[in-house]
Amino acid sequence: MDDLRGKTAVVTGGASGVGHCLCRLFAEQGMRVAMVDVEAGRLAGAAQTLREAGLAVVDMQADVTDPDAMDALAQRVAAELGPVHVLCNNAGVGIKEAQRRMWTLTPNDWTWGFNVNVHGIANGIRAFVPGMLAHGEAGHVVNTSSGNGGLTSLPTTPIYAATKAAVTSMSEVLHYQFLMEGAALQAHVLFPGPHVVNTNILNSMRNRPAALRDDEETPAYVSMRDLLQASGIADPQLTEPEEVAATCLEGMRAGRFWILPGHSAQDDKIQKRTGDILARRNPTLPE
Questions:
Q1: I need a labelling partner for 113 at 20 to 30 A (CA). Which of 124, 143, 187, 211 fits?
Q2: Do residues 246 and 197 touch, judged by C-beta distance below 8 A?
Q3: Cβ(18)–Cβ(241) below 8 Å
Q4: What's the pLDDT score for residue 201?
Q5: For 5-36, what is each residue's pLDDT tens digit?
Q6: Strand partners, 153
Q7: Sign of the C-alpha dihedral computed for residues 152, 156, 160 and 163 taken in this order
Q8: Under DSSP, is residue 14 helix (H, G, I), strand (E, B) or coil?
Q9: Residue 88 in contact with residue 144, Cβ under 8 Å?
Q10: What is the pLDDT of residue 150?
């Protein structure tokens, strides 16, 4: 689907980061864009900024973890913007887990991470794909995974890595099932990179529901750059969200299921992991 003009896109996690950049890029292509996020205030401000730039976006608050809210969102999008042609299941969260061992993480930690990163994508697929199939036109479903878990796993983020491994598997199955249906839809899995992406995901704890909080601590804001510098990397390389959005659009237009940035250290990690599996070698700690 080369010409996106007049088509409709839905992007979750649209108030900031990669999601916000996807909304801007799609709108610049002439699409009508539903910007979706759980934070109504931030979402309204982000959408207003794009509208002031002359872009056709509508802010629609919804919680991806709530199936009923996603059903209502799908109905609203259909009523206000028409048939959906691009669905980006992009909303995601990070857990405060990097300094903890897997066996110390709480049931609430696991529940929240999977609710957003996995069930959120399942809810998006369930709410929007039937309508996308019904209108019969070409379309795209893009699920945001991560090189961490989606391809290889870091030893410090068990919940995040596990959720992103699930996203990759879900996306592969969705791809197969579109083929089995003979659908005009294509599934894609997006791996932001090639470097750590400069987003606010480290601050997603602010949206953790009270029922799933184990303490009342609200972590202070921390940027990705600050975190990497604190870990000993004096001048960290970061990928900006705008680069990820551009890679996503290019991958969609090229019809690629695996949407990855150009060659990077991640390729070497994938090759090593694949080699270990085929040789039946035990994994080793990453350098």
A1: 187
A2: no
A3: yes
A4: 85
A5: 999 999 999 999 999 999 999 999 999 999 99
A6: none
A7: positive
A8: coil
A9: yes
A10: 97
Sign, CA dihedral 154-156-162-167, equals negative
Residues 6+ apart with CB under 8 A from 169: none
> Catalytic residue at 221?
no
Give CA–CA dist 246/110, Å, rounded. 32
More confident residue, 42 or 266: 42
Residues ≥6 apart with Cβ < 8 Å to 79: none
Q: Which among 64-73, 196-205, 215-224 has the top mean pLDDT?
A: 64-73
- Among 160, 165, 198, 208, which one carries the catalytic annotation? 160
Both structure tokens of 26: 């799609």
* Number of residues in the chain: 287
Q: CB–CB of 168/189 below 8 Å?
A: yes
Q: Specify the range with the lowest mean pLDDT, choosing from 211-225, 252-266, 273-287.
A: 211-225
Q: Which domains does the chain carry? A: 8-278 (3.40.50.720)
What are the residue ranges of helices labelled H in the chain?
17-28, 40-52, 67-81, 107-114, 120-135, 147-150, 158-181, 224-230, 241-254, 265-278
Q: Output the average pLDDT for the chain.
A: 93
